[in-house]
C-alpha cells in the first residue's frame, strides 16, 4: 500500500466529516479523535515513549526527559507498513519551486543547515554544532517548550494520539527535554485561558531554573504556533526572560481570517475550509476583538523578539498567516528563517512517520534551534 496516498486520502475524508455547523464543537472533537485513532490503528502513530504528566502552577504538562544518548541526525527506518521509496531518506529540497520564497540555501551556505543530512557519526560522539555547552541549561539539557495545536478547542484528550509519537521523536532528534502544557481550551475556556496557562507554566519553568531561557526553544504548531507568538509578546511586555529561539509550524496567527490564501489556496488544502476556521475562531475569541495581538499575533509588535524559524506548507489556506508574520518580524529587526515546503499540508512535520518531508523538517529544526545565536 502507498502510505503517502493513503494519508492524503484520509485527510480528504477527514475534511468531509467536519460538521456542517462549524459551531458544533462536540462533533469537531469526535471527528478529530476518530481521525487520530484511525491513523494510530493504521500503524503510523503507534510508537512513543511513556510520557509523565507533571503539574506546573496548576497546569498539567506532558514531560519527556532529556534524550542525550541519541545522536543527530537520526537514521529513519520505514514504519512496519511502509516500503519502497518512502522507506528511504530523501535529501532536503534545494528550493521551493514555483517562485516561492525560500532561504534554505542561505542557511546551508552559513553552515547552519546541512545540504542533505549531516554525515553519520560514530555512536557516542556528539556533534559539536548541536551539543555545545553554550546551548545547554544549568542541568545540562536542551529544553523545548511545546504548545500543541487544535484550534484552541482540542486538548491532549482529543489530539494526544498524534502528539505522543511526534514529541517523542522531536525529543530524540533534538536531544532535548520537552515540556508541553495541556492548556485549557474553548468554548468552555475562551481567551485568555490558553495564554494564561502557558504563561504560568513557562514562568514556573524559568523560576525553577533561571538559566533555562537562554537554552530553551519555544515551539508550537497551528493554533499552538500562534499561541507561541502571543506568549513571546506577553513575556516581552512583562519583562520576563525570552527563550533562545522560537519555531512555528503552520502557525495560525490571524483569527480575523483576512489572508488571501484563505481563498487562493482553498482548493489545495485538504484540512481546513474558511467556514470551519471562522467557526472555531468564534469559540476562542467570543466577545473579544479578533485582531487583538494576544489573540492574533499577526497584529502585534515584534520588536525585541528572539530569532524565529517559521515552517509552512504550500497547500495551506493559512499560508499567508506565516508569510505575513515573517515579513512583519523582519521589518522589526527580528532574525527570521522562513521554511516553505511547497507540496506539503498543514502541520506536516507531525506526520513524520508517513512523510519524508516531515522528517527532514524536524532535522532542520534541530539544526536551527541549537545553533542560532540568542539575542543578547
SSE arrangement:
Layout: H1 3-16, H2 25-42, E1 52-56, E2 59-64, H3 104-109, H4 128-131, E3 142-147, H5 156-174, E4 176-181, H6 193-208, E5 216-221, H7 223-237, E6 245-249, H8 261-264, H9 274-285, E7 308-313, H10 319-331, E8 336-341, H11 356-369
Helix pairs in contact: 2-5, 6-7
Structure description:
This protein is of the alpha/beta class. It has one domain: Rossmann fold, CATH 3.40.50. 36% of the residues lie in helices and 12% in strands. The protein contains 11 helices and 8 strands. Strands 1-2-4-3-5-6-7-8 form an 8-stranded mixed beta sheet, sandwiched between helices. Helix 2 packs across helix 5 and helix 6 packs across helix 7. It starts with a helix and ends in a 7-residue tail after the last helix. About 21% of the residues have low confidence.
What features would you highlight for this structure?
376 residues, alpha/beta, Rossmann fold, eight-stranded mixed sheet, 11 helices, 12% strand
Quick overview of this protein structure:
The protein has 11 helices and 8 strands. It is an alpha/beta fold and 376 residues long.
Amino acid at each position: 500500500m502507498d502510505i503517502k496516498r493513503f494519508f492524503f486520502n484520509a485527510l480528504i475524508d477527514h475534511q468531509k466529516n467536519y460538521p456542517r455547523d462549524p459551531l458544533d464543537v462536540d462533533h469537531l472533537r469526535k471527528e478529530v479523535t476518530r481521525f487520530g485513532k484511525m491513523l494510530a490503528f493504521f500503524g503510523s502513530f503507534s510508537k512513543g515513549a511513556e510520557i509523565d504528566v507533571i503539574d506546573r502552577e496548576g497546569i498539567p504538562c506532558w514531560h519527556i526527559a532529556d534524550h542525550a544518548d541519541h545522536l543527530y541526525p537520526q537514521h529513519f527506518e520505514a514504519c512496519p507498513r511502509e516500503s519502497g521509496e518512502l522507506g528511504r531518506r530523501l535529501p532536503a529540497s534545494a528550493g521551493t519551486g514555483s517562485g516561492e520564497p525560500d532561504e534554505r540555501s542561505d542557511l546551508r551556505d552559513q553552515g547552519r543547515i546541512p545540504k542533505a543530512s549531516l554525515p553519520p557519526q560514530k555512536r557516542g560522539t556528539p556533534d559539536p554544532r548541536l551539543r555545545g555547552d553554550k546551548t545547554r541549561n544549568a542541568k545540562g539539557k536542551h529544553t523545548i517548550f511545546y504548545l500543541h495545536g487544535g484550534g484552541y478547542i482540542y486538548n491532549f484528550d482529543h489530539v494526544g494520539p498524534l502528539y505522543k509519537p511526534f514529541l517523542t521523536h522531536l525529543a530524540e532528534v533534538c536531544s532535548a527535554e520537552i515540556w508541553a502544557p495541556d492548556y485549557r481550551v474553548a468554548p468552555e475556556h475562551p481567551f485568555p485561558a490558553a495564554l494564561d496557562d502557558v504563561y504560568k507554566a513557562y514562568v514556573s519553568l524559568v523560576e525553577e531554573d533561571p538559566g533555562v531561557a537562554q537554552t530553551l526553544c519555544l515551539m508550537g504548531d497551528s493554533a499552538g504556533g500562534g499561541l507561541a507568538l502571543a506568549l513571546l509578546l506577553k513575556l516581552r511586555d512583562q519583562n520576563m526572560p525570552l527563550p533562545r529561539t522560537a519555531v512555528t509550524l503552520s502557525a495560525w496567527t490571524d483569527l480575523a481570517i483576512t489572508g488571501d490564501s484563505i481563498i487562493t489556496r482553498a482548493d489545495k488544502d485538504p484540512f481546513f475550509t474558511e467556514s470551519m476556521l471562522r467557526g472555531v475562531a468564534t469559540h476562542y475569541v467570543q466577545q473579544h476583538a479578533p485582531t487583538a495581538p494576544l489573540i492574533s499575533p499577526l497584529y502585534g509588535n515584534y520588536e525585541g523578539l528572539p530569532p524565529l524559524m517559521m515552517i509552512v506548507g504550500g497547500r495551506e489556506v493559512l499560508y499567508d498567516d506565516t508569510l505575513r508574520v515573517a515579513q512583519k518580524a523582519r521589518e522589526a529587526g527580528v532574525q527570521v528563517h522562513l521554511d516553505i515546503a511547497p507540496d506539503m499540508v498543514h502541520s506536516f512535520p507531525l506526520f513524520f512517520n508517513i512523510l519524508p518531508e516531515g522528517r527532514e523538517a524536524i532535522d532542520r529544526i534541530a539544526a536551527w534551534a541549537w545553533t542560532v545565536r540568542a539575542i543578547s
